[in-house]
Amino acid sequence: MKRLLVMAALMLSLTMAAGCGKKEPQPEELLTEYIDLLNEEKYEEMYAYLTEEARASIDQETYVERYQNIYGGIEAMNIQADIEEREEGHKDKKAVTQRVKYKLTMDTLAGELAFDTVAIFTKNEEGAYKMSWDSQDIFPGLYEGDRVRVKTISAKRGNIYDQNQTALAREGTASSVGLVPGKLAENPDREENLARLSELLGLSVERIEKELNASWVRDDTFVPLRTVSKDDYELKEQLLEIPGVMITDTTVRYYPFKEKAAQLTGYVQSITAEELEERKGQGYNRNSLIGKAGAERIYEDILRPRDGYSIQIIDGLGDVRSTVLEKPAEDGKDVVLTIDIVLQQHLYQELEGDEGCAVAIDPKSGAVLAMASAPAYDPNDFVMGYTSAAWEEINNDETQPLYNRFLASWVPGSVFKPVTAAIGLTNGTLDPKEDVKNEGLSWQKDSGWGDYYVTTLTDYAVKNLENALVHSDNIYFAKAAVNAGEEVFTKGLDQVGFGETLPFDFELKPSAYGSEGKLASETELADSGYGQGKLLVNPLHLAVIYSAFVNEGNMVQPYLTGNESGRFWKESAFTPEAAQNVLDALYQVVEHPEGTAHEAAPSEYRLAGKTGTAEIKDSKEDVNGTELGWFVGISGADTDKPLLMVMMIEDVKGRGGSHYVIPKAMVGFDVYNKGEAEDER
């Protein structure tokens, strides 16, 4: 028994010794933990660090809400506490107080905020330190009953201009349509009026009611519902007949050239919650606009405004007690494109009513002068906001107005024959003067091709390079590719950028051949020689390849902004002799009376060109396929105002093939060379 008592006493003393050895966290450690929780927005857990007196002065729900509103409102991040010193406060039988001086820094939407402050910790009866908290632990000078306000100082988005300082995207004015709930409620026909408003605005009654029932709405509040064009006078007149409707001016992003430059400029819309989260800390807020397509998206970081912010402490009377931090607004910068909007407009107008695209460049400098895609949309509709019905209609439109055709790659047809020629001439597998004999309008290399033949439309006497281009002879260029062989031909394609992403601000689909970069057979090689088979070319890339014909075999680097004039993307893609041979022949395609593009021959200037009709069908036997019509032209090659243009129109079968395209493309050449439309800017 005595032994048991001794052992029990020993265990008790060990337990007490262990208890005495347990060390409570010191104030500095507690402050560090508290700031970590603040960074993690774990406000409920922070509340447990407060003294009983502090918790008696503010309940947990209010405490959490205060931190959420203030630190969330200023978008506080990267909060750090640099502890400077700790000093002992008063000490008596009831409490021991410690004062920890520290500097609190954080990133906010108004910039870095830093201030010196003191945390007071009091040891409770259990020997643990707790924090004696009040509102000034959030900000110095913030008292009970005060609130923090973040005032936004709006900045302007940069404009987009063409090369002549004509605005393609700028600030404009529209009409904001809304309701004053009190005035609507005064009318006995409230439901009928809401139904009429719903019909005119294309918004459901439920959507309108939801806006009217928002927590911030009062009877005399203007509740905006929809933005409409300032010029839609008929609609606004009908809207104003409804009691409670008000219409005010509002500032919007405006696109003066509408569909004519839509795929080029793109559009802006309100930032989404997901985008706001992705760009947290970059100066965006829930009211920000962000580029969603075209130049607006590509140059977003240049164009976008950086709103300014003022973090203010507001007293109970609504007056500004102090300004904690202020950041000035920074307007977005303007973007000047190399685009000539006069040329752009005319090309779109010629494409209007069809499905197609056109690109134009200065083949010497590389400046991109026009990029048009039709049909298109009005980017102002995105800014105003589509109704559900209108959005469904544009998405279900078979002509795909939202589809940007100059970004895609297409079967080139005969406009690719000059490229085949240049590859053969450069590699010595093609003699430009040789008469490549062929009987009739069909050809196959040998019986190993089975029932597969290459066919052409015209027979002519001397089948050399110039005549083959003049008459657009499929057989000549199929033979040229086969004679070069797959290795030489595909190496030539690789050298002009097939399979590569063209270094350009817009993301273009790379040109490609065969399957996975290989031609499967000799017949596929033959088809590729005259621009058919599994060959796809992006229109701007094609223009860049053609630029080699006026640059001694060097392919120009295209650019849309800045001044990168005269840089080459691919040097020595062709030999200078090969480039000159092809260019001379392309002049004859236009000037020779039998040339496929002779109808394009202008009298005032010289033009080199090539037509192309690409067949789109499932097999050789397919008779229901469609056709793409192409025209590529070069004017002013020896002047200080050269122009290289590519135009493609879909579904030209039965409408003249490439000859449907030629007069449309010539409008662009005439406008550019004669300066007919200078007054239209």
Tally of alpha and pi helices = 23
Question: In one word, what is the shape?
Answer: elongated
The fraction of residues in strands falls at 15-25%
Return residue spans where pLDDT drops below 50 for at least 5 consecutive residues: 1-20, 677-681
Mean pLDDT across every amino acid position: 91
Number of strand elements: 25
**Sheet bearing the most strands, described?**
5 strands, mixed
Topology:
Blueprint: H1 2-21, H2 27-39, H3 43-47, H4 52-57, H5 60-73, E1 77-91, E2 96-108, E3 111-123, E4 129-131, E5 147-153, E6 160-161, E7 167-179, H6 181-185, H7 190-201, H8 205-212, E8 223-228, H9 233-239, E9 245-254, H10 262-265, E10 268-270, H11 273-278, E11 289-291, H12 294-298, H13 300-303, E12 308-314, E13 320-327, E14 335-336, H14 341-351, E15 356-361, E16 368-374, H15 379-384, H16 388-395, H17 417-427, E17 442-443, E18 454-455, H18 465-470, H19 474-495, E19 512-513, H20 522-529, E20 535-536, H21 539-547, E21 555-556, E22 568-570, H22 576-591, E23 607-616, E24 626-635, E25 643-649, H23 662-674
Parallel strand pairs: 6-14
Antiparallel strand pairs: 1-2, 2-3, 3-4, 5-12, 6-7, 7-8, 7-9, 10-11, 12-13, 15-16, 15-25, 17-18, 19-20, 21-22, 23-24, 24-25
Provide a quick synopsis of the model.
This protein is α+β, with helices and mostly antiparallel strands and 681 residues long.
Structure description:
By secondary structure, the protein is α+β, with helices and mostly antiparallel strands. It contains 23 helices and 25 strands. Strands 6, 7, 8, 9 and 14 form a 5-stranded mixed sheet that branches. Strands 16-15-25-24-23 form a 5-stranded antiparallel sheet, sandwiched between helices. A 4-stranded antiparallel sheet has the order 1-2-3-4, with helices on one face. Helix 14 runs antiparallel to helix 23 (662-674), helix 17 (417-427) crosses helix 19 (474-495) and helix 17 (417-427) runs antiparallel to helix 22. It is elongated. The model is unreliable at 1-20 and 677-681 (pLDDT under 50).
